[in-house]
Amino acid sequence: MAGATKTANVTWKGDLASGSGTITSVGSGAFSNLGVTWKNRTESEDLTSPEELIAAANAACFAMALSHGLAQAGHAPEKLEITAKCTFSLDGGPKISNMDLHVRGTVPGMDRAAFEAAAEGAGNNCPVSTAFKGNVAYTVKAELVG
User: Is the predicted pLDDT of residue 1 greater than 70, yes or no?
Assistant: First the structure.
C-alpha cells in the first residue's frame, strides 16, 4: 500500500505576542481558518493550538493502531474512547514535554491485562506515537469497561 502526504497551510500576521494565524487543511478540507495565537497556546482555550492538533492526531492514530491490534488478536473492539493530552511547557525553553493517553475500551472476551498490553503495544507502534520516542514523556493508561 502506498503512503500518503497530507498538507496544511498556516498564515501568520504580526509578531509572536500580539500576532495571530489561521490553520487550514488543504487536501481534505476537514478544517479551515482555525485561529491560533501565542496567548491561546499558553494561557486560554478560546482557539486551537499546535498541541491540541497533535493530541487529536495522536488519539486518532492510536485508536486505529489499537483497534487493528485487538482485531488481529481476535478481539475487535465495540468501542474505544481515547483522550490525548499534549502538554506545552515553557520550563527550560518552549517545548512539548508530555503526551498522555487514556483509553477506555469495550472489548468483548478480553481481560484487563490483555487490554492493557494491547494498549501499550499500540502506544509503542502507532506512527504518531513513535514520533515522540526519545523526545517527550509518553504515557498510556488503559481502562477496560463493560
Answer: no
